Structures are given as structure tokens and as C-alpha cells.
Amino acid sequence: MVKHYNIPIFLPELACPFRCSYCNQATISGQSHIPSESEMIALIERNLNSFPKGNNHIEIAFFGGNFTGLPTRIQRNALQVAKKYVCNNQVQGIRLSTRPDYVDSEKLLLLKENGVTTIELGAQSLDEEVLLRCGRGHTAADVHQASALIKAEGFSLGLQMMIGLAGDTLSRALQTAHQIIEAGADETRIYPCLVIRGTELEQAFLKGSYIPLSLDEAVAWTAQLVLLFEKAGVKIIRLGLHPSEELNNEGLIAGPYHPSFKELVMTKIWKNILLANNEWPGCSELQIEIAPKERNFCIGFEATNKKWLLTRFKNIRFIANDAVSDRNFLLKPILSCSS
User: Fold this and answer.
1) What gap in Å lies between CA 273 and CA 297, rounded to an integer?
2) Are 155 and 115 spatial neighbours (Cβ–Cβ below 8 Å)?
3) Which of 39, 89, 121, 146 is in Cβ range 3.0-4.6 Å of 103 for a Cys bridge?
4) How far, in Å, CA of 227 to CA of 222, rounded?
5) Pairing relation of β-strands 116-124 and 156-163?
6) Cα of 251 vs its chain's centroid, Å
7) Residue 226 DSSP SS3
8) Integer CA distances (angstroms), 141 to 32, 106, 276, in order
């Protein structure tokens, strides 16, 4: 099995012409300065030495700012550092994140010449009202135009979305997901909107004009989005923000942050599957056989699904079965069966 690894290099708040209402990159990333060439090399080498040996797919990833809005010299220097590792087969690709309104054919040519394979756009929402209210400074049409250019030039396309922004609703989030699929995205990230210290959203929250999603709401919305993207074949590469010291301490003011957000979402998906099952055997002890990669999610974060089932059954066993695929499952009574 191929193991995928990213080596993240953060370029915080560089070249962003707008300050989105929710954004404080220094707090989110835990970094506030541009890494030098030597710092980038040291970071890459440190990560390469930490990965286990084996069948790995490694990418160097430039995150945290508006990469294609940087001066060309800075873009080229950063990419040339990364490209050396592609040329000697130590990494298999370069990815970066940027704004959809900073994508054109000339910028894409520079990226292609320097080994970039994946471009992620911070779409966040494709609802015009939501984009306006959060101060993104671009339209949904900008996202669609940039996506078409990126796909036409042969790059892999990632479209990131954020749920729970001001003006967002579940129906609007689902519509954004449908448009991301229609735009030809190969992958996506789903982030719940958080209230971060030092942002415009913090002031709105303190005034009571913005109410973030609860954790339960964010989990429930994301569970629906995950199923939608999976059905369309769009790879989900991240659910929730990566834990950082700043978010775990004083940087987070409010909102549905959880260090195990993905596990909560997968637990919710399995809870919904189990709730929908109408063929429970009439017995006191039950064995549930699941695909190995789904076993922990079926049991649930902190065994919440197991605890729920134990209100109905005296004993529950969760068995990994290689013959079971996806989120299918087999029910096998153990004792005290009446049917």
C-alpha cells in the first residue's frame, strides 16, 4: 500500500490582497515569517528523514498564503528548492495553495516549468452572499474560471471549502459541494469556520452578530458532505484544521474545533448507518464484521457507537473482516437468539 506524506512549508499571509473575516494565518499555522532557502531545505530534509522507508508518495506543499500572488522571483526560488527533490526522486510532486483570482495562463506556465503537480484553491464557499460577507474579494465565477484553467493545463485540482461562515446554511454548503464536483475537483478539504483571535469574525462574535456552528452541527454537516464527495469520486484529504499549539491554547475564541474532528465525522456516518438498519437479529449478543479500515470508525470516537449499541445488546463484538468492503457490514448473532 502506498503511504502519502506532505512536507508543509508555510508562507503566512504573503500576497493576500484581502483579510478574510475569519483569517489570522499566524495563529492558524503557528508561523509568522517567510522561511529562507536554508530553512526550507532543513525542513524538507528533516521530514524526509522522519518518514518510514517503504512505498511512499511524498509531496512538498506550499501553504498559508497566496502563492501565485508572490513576486515571481520568490515563487521561482521556492519552487526551485522543491524541484531539486523531485528531480532526484526523493519526492514525487509539488503542491501549493493560492487564490482563484490570482490564476492565469502565465502564472500556470511558471508552475508547470518548476514541477508543480497539484494546485489547491481556497474556494471556501461558492455562494455569492457568503463570499461577500466573509470578505473573500472574489466571486464564484472566479473559482470556476481558475478551476477550468488549472484542469486544462493538466494539474490536479483541489478545492477547499469552509462550512459555517456568516450567511452559510446546510443547503448552501451542499450546493457548494455540488459545484466543487462540477468544477472537476480531484480533491477537497473541509474546514469548519472557527473564531480566531485577532480577526474581524472575533469582533462580530463578541458583538453577537455571528454565531458559529456547534460541534454537533459541524460534524453533522460534514458527514453529509463526505458522502457526497465520496459518491462523486472526489478525494477528501483533510477534515478540520490541523491541531496547533496556538489553537489549543489562546488562539481559539469559539467554534467547532476538535483535534479529532475527522474521527467525530466518521463516527457520525457510522451512527447514521447503524440507525438506518432494520434487520437487527433478536439476540442479546452480537458480532459486527466490518472492513478493517472502518472498524475503529464503526466503534466510534471514544467508543460512542459501541456504547449506544450496548443499550440494546448485552454484548457487542466488532470484528475486522477483509471480505467486507467499504461501509458494508455483517451481523452475526452469538447467543440467546430468538430468530
Assistant:
1) 12
2) no
3) 146
4) 9
5) parallel
6) 20
7) helix
8) 31, 19, 39
Q: Which amino acid, 171?
A: S
CA distances from 231 to 186, 253, 265, 275 (A): 13, 35, 16, 20
CB 339 within 8 A of CB 282: yes
CA-closest candidate to residue 204, choices 3, 327, 20, 31:
20
Three-state DSSP class for residue 293 = helix
What's the chain's length in residues? 339
Enter the C-alpha cell of residue 105. Answer: 495562463
CB atoms under 10 Å from CB of 40, counted, come to 20
Cα(171)–Cα(282) distance, integer angstroms: 39
Contact yes or no for 137/17 (Cβ under 8 A)? yes
Dump pLDDT digits (tens) for 151-176. 999 999 999 999 999 999 999 999 99
| Domain 3-259 indexed as CATH 1.10.10.10 | no
Reduce the secondary structure of 106-126 to three states and give it as a string: HHHHHHHHCCEEEEEEEEECC
Q: For the chain, which residues make up each domain, given as ranges?
A: 3-259, 277-335
Secondary structure percentages of the chain, helix, strand, coil, to 5:
45, 20, 35
Among 105, 153, 145, smallest CA distance to 121 is for 145
- Pairing type for strands 187-192 and 235-239 reads parallel
The pLDDT tens digits of the residues spanning 38-79 come to 999 999 999 999 998 888 899 999 987 689 988 898 899 999
Least reliable range by pLDDT among 91-100, 114-123, 241-250: 241-250
Grid cell 479500515 is found at: 293
Q: What is the pLDDT of residues 204-233, one digit of tens each?
A: 999 999 999 999 999 999 999 999 999 999
